[in-house]
Amino acid sequence: MPFELTPAEEQVRKIAREYTEREIIPIRKKLEKGGAAVWWDECAKQLVKQTEIGFHLLIIPKEDGGTGIGFVARCIAIEEVCSGWPGINDPWYRCEFAYKFVKATGGEVEKKWLPRIIKGTARAAPFMTEPTGGSDVMNITSTAKKVSDGWVINGRKIFLSGGDVDFGMALVKTGDPADPKTRGPRALSAFVIEKGMPGFKWGRLENTVTRQQELREAIFDNLFVPDSCLVQGVGRGLQSVLGAVNDIGRMNITSHLNGIILGTYRTASQYAKERKLYGKPLADLQGIQFRLAEMAVDLEITRCLTYRAAWLRNQGKRGDTEMAVAKYFATQAAMRDAMHCVCIHGTYGVLEDYMPQRYFRDVPVRMMAGGTDEAMKNMIASAVINDANPDLSSKNMQDAGW
Amino acid sequence: MDIQAYKGVWVFAEQRDGKLLDVGLELLATGRELADKLGEELVAVLFGNQVRSLADELASYGTDKVLVADSPVLAVYRNDSYSLALTELVNQRKPSIVLVGGTTIGMDLAPRVAAKLGTGLTAHAVSLKLDKDGCLLAQIPSFGGTIMASICCAKHRPQMVTVPPGFLKKPEKKTAKKASVETVKIAVTEKDVRTKVLEVFRQEPKSKPIQEAETVVCGGFGVGSKEGWKMVEDLAGALGGSVGATRPACDEGWAVQDEQMVGQSGKVIHPKLYFGIGISGVIHHLIGIKDSKVIVAINKDPKAPLASSADYVIQSDFRQVVPALISELQKIKK
Amino acid sequence: MCPINTVVCIKPVPDIRYWDRLSLDPATKTLRREGIPIVISPMDKNAIEEALRIRQARGGKVTVVSMGPLNTEDILRSAYALGVDDAVLLTDRTFAGADTLATAYVLSEGIRKLGNVDLVLLGNESLDGSTGQVGPQVAEFLGLPSITHVSEITFTDETTVQVKSNIELGFMRIETHLPAVLAVTGDINVVHIPSVWGALWATEKSIAKWTCAELGAETGRCGLTGSPTWVPEVAPIDVKRRGEVLKGEPTQIAVQLIEKLRADGVLPEI
Fold this sequence. Notes:
The complex is a heterotrimer of chains A (402), B (334) and C (270). Chain A is α+β, with helices and mostly antiparallel strands. Chain A is built from twelve helices and nine strands.
């Protein structure tokens, strides 16, 4: 595992930073004061700029028309952009999801959507969560029944992000619980569902603490999808969707949090250097210095963890546990650092004209999205208990210290 | 190059559309001082077409001689014609010093001439002195005015310098002593000129957004009223600058927050000249103005923090100082 | 229409955001620049952007040239990120300490060696020196016409350009034929944000390095030796705000203030 970024990755940081300074920082006030309408309007504008720069091409390999620079560069780009405004990379993020979905599905779906994805005009999101619980995937109730040349889907998905996307990958039940062959994960299949398909409807729009109304409901009412929309075969749904969620989704959310950590680090350290109290800069006070030191430690650790998980993906390795470790750490660190930042700013930290309160409000959403802390710990614990890694296990009870 | 053979202080007196530019007259005042110290001749050089009357006017500004090159080829400024003509004259007459006003045209002309002559050119000199050997020392501020460099052109002649307009005082017209005017012939013809001027276009300067303005007059809560605010706007108008405001002034409705609020949560500005009128100077405003070259604070309250971050502090009622300022500025304009 | 081959001269300058960290070495009387990031002088970036637009319309090659120490490579990589075709660094100890005349000489030798050049673009003035002298001087050494303060370039036929050259309170519309040197201002265009492909170009493309000998340049005209102007003295100006209190009657204060502002060089032209 290299401890240095490649020259191309360093260039990507420069490009992402220039984009953030020129395009995102100037619209902060607008985004804070405006509500959902302003957010989605701005997202449409930024999609054009982001895809012109080609951020969505970072993880797409050269064979498919991308740059192949990779996942580490992607994390860096998201981190820089989100330090400007958390989540503002959402426009290009949807193209990344779209790419992952169509590559998983192949066939007609890939042929139809890949050119548009490269151009940056196709956006997608996973359709997973149901009222039965986001973490409780096995108990979803949406169903898909086989008909002559396709499937008919019925059900409801909630808390979907990405706004008015072009298509999604929906996780539905195709298995018969009575049949032992279709039990557990084999009961689930995934389908690409396009917005225009008859029987598809957007439902309720949810407002969160960010006031960006970024969550919505999708309703499938006798929605017909052709066979070409089945992803990888019946019963292969869970690994398809979870693969996308881990690669594209979880890494993205973690990078949002890293962006918040980076943003709070920059804001707090600059403020501490300029603001005077008792005739001296705040940064002269040891209490403030300790806070800044903790923020620096968090930034260092979270980058190491996230870039490492991304680096494993670049090598074609899974890195699921490493990604879970990174996300779990990032949510905890982001919460701490957002609080440090607010405290360092005093009352200015809670005024809506300044960024500290924004960074602070943007953390909890990311605790839920891409897998909750509890879900992450489940994954990590499962690795502790089940993985056969000789480096991590003791030879026998005596060596273990019994 | 035999330096000793070069004598005389030349000032290129630019004219446009039959009017002498102030910068040439400003340079004549400094040129006079240098010529007197060196015991050499001060010469004003004038280029144009049918500019004899301007030459006569130049002659009353304390120069010893006016050299006029009067020709259709010099009617409108073009890099080739003017640089060839000036080079030709310099080679014939060998001045030791050539001063050029740093207008857009002066900055276009001087480097070309310096390259033709293979001599040194210093730009944006804010002060000119002579060293103990009689060499010209030009002082130029650099790196945003944090460093002052002295530049010298020891072994080459002429020593060329451009000086920004408006820096030096305009000399008083001396009606008593009038310089001699000499018309010179130059070898330059239209064949030598590789550019064509199709059009010279005048336009009123567009009002700049506050982040780009070179002069900003900011008002704060201390301005007190809409009537008081008008003085802030009038001062900005007299300076050709933009109007800024603090948050409280915007809250009072005197200014528009989105475009005019200056400060950490508003606009960060980098003007050459900043006025803070009736502004206390909390950190959030200071952060927005700290890159200003010169800060002038006008506030009745001696304890206002802006004073400790200002270059010039006026602890009087702005309602008296600002009208006086506007009046003095208008005198200069005339 | 035939393609246009453009050379853009770019200058490495210290990043303005860190100018407050520049310090003077009292012994050598030079600026200590270690640790200060170097960037392309902003108007030179506008020149690159304009060259790319011309390439888009007419085809041809865009080459950037810079004179500087080895670490100037970084800015040439930034130029690659913007999309230029080739980059050349003129680097040699002999070039050090150059004023604008010596710099213009070396650049012109580099352009001469490149050959097949239809247009030379550069920023009208650099961020640090801002003399605006190198453009016309490069043109003089190449024997080409030059126009400065260019805020717009239009091709009226294969090799004829019409430009807007800014003057105070207006502009001149000037026509000339290529080859020519045009010094462009910051308002000529908006430099695009590099695309991620730029990240690959910046790291994968190679930079040619030419020494004094390879250029065949006369050492006597390069660097400190070739500079008619030199700097006998550099002094820091105290950046702290002066806090000078002006007293007296309003009119007296006004007159005093105007004098001081004039001396500071910040009184606007009115």
